[in-house]
Design brief:
The complex is a heterodimer of chains A (231) and B (68). Chain A is 33% helix and 11% strand. Chain A is α+β, with helices and mostly antiparallel strands and 231 residues long. Chain A has 2 domains: 51 residues, no CATH class; 131 residues, Glutaredoxin, CATH 3.40.30. Chain A is extended. Chain B is rod-shaped. The chains are: A alpha+beta (231), B mainly alpha (68).
């Protein structure tokens, strides 16, 4: 079976064949990456290639070098989806990341598309590095805590603005280990997904934190390895 | 004499163990509350700033154009 051609490799030199009459399939691999289809591919003689043969063929002992230019594979037309805002978002999620913490930043970036897919119903805002730095400069208590995922409860904000409870921040930047950052991110995604219809979000967040705290205390008592979140 | 010294050492060690437990539980609690930070009136200015950025159009909802 012929090896696949990758886009980075040089096209192979055509093989010299002593038996010109034998026929094989072209070397193009249907499973190869799309770049391979765009580069010239070495192929062997077929009756239709007579016009492109560079040397005259001698019937029995001919040594032919044939290069056939395959037409570039027509690219699929990319249809652009128009942005449709979610019908009834419960949360507004803003991601603030000035680029401090490499570990948390990596965890967030690697899983961003998945987070986006899991929270299609929510409004997501992504601050650029520059805007994030500006924002953090205005609110200095946030320095060193980014990447921050700010979740605003739109229902609470509609009711009483930002004076009372109106959401929560996930300060991923305080996580130092990749595993901790990933678990915190997963917990966050799960929490937002499972509590989007909650009537009293504040009470549920506080109950969840209490539960985590009790579990952490039990773990300390039994000398278990600290959990990622509280540890 | 030795009995009393032993008792005193046990009491001190017990107190240290309890103090460590309290400290560790408190540390984890603070860390957890720092990680999942509940927003209330004290962070009103931070949230209001973000809301203003959204309402003024400075921030647009994230949407990646994807092939259909």
């Amino acid at each position: 079976m012929p090896k696949s051609l990758s886009g980075t490799e040089q096209p192979r030199r055509p093989r010299r064949r002593t038996n010109a009459s034998s026929k094989r399939a072209p070397a193009a691999n249907p499973g190869a990456p799309p770049e391979a289809g765009d580069s010239p591919i070495a192929a062997e003689a077929t009756p239709s290639d007579v016009a492109t043969i560079s040397q005259p063929i001698e019937p029995a002992t001919a040594t032919t070098e044939i290069v056939r230019e395959l037409p570039a594979r027509p690219r699929k037309a990319v249809r652009i989806r128009k942005y449709k805002p979610p019908a009834a978002p419960r949360f507004r999620i803003c991601i603030i990341d000035s680029g401090w913490n490499a570990v948390a930043r990596r965890a967030l970036r690697h899983n961003f598309s998945l987070i986006r897919r899991l929270h299609k119903e929510e409004l997501l805002y992504l601050l650029s590095r520059k805007k994030s730095a500006e924002f953090i400069r205005r609110h200095r208590s946030l320095i060193g805590r980014d990447p921050i995922i700010a979740v605003h409860d739109l229902e609470a904000i509609r009711e009483h603005g930002t004076t009372g409870f109106h959401g929560f921040h996930l300060h991923l930047g305080i996580m130092r280990a990749p595993r901790q950052a990933l678990i915190a991110l997963q917990n966050f995604v799960q929490f937002v997904a499972t509590h989007r219809h909650s009537e009293n979000l504040e009470a549920e967040i506080r109950a969840e934190l209490r539960r985590e705290g009790i579990i952490g205390a039990v773990e300390i008592l039994f000398h278990k390895a600290p959990r990622a979140l509280g540890g | 004499m030795l009995d009393r010294l032993g008792e005193a050492v046990s009491v001190v060690l017990g107190a240290l163990a309890i103090a460590y437990l309290v400290y560790e539980i408190d540390r984890r609690k603070r860390r957890l509350r720092d990680l999942f930070h509940v927003l209330d009136g004290t962070e009103a200015d931070i949230s209001a700033d973000l809301l203003n950025m959204v309402e003024s159009g400075e921030l647009k909802p994230f949407f990646r154009e994807t092939p259909a």
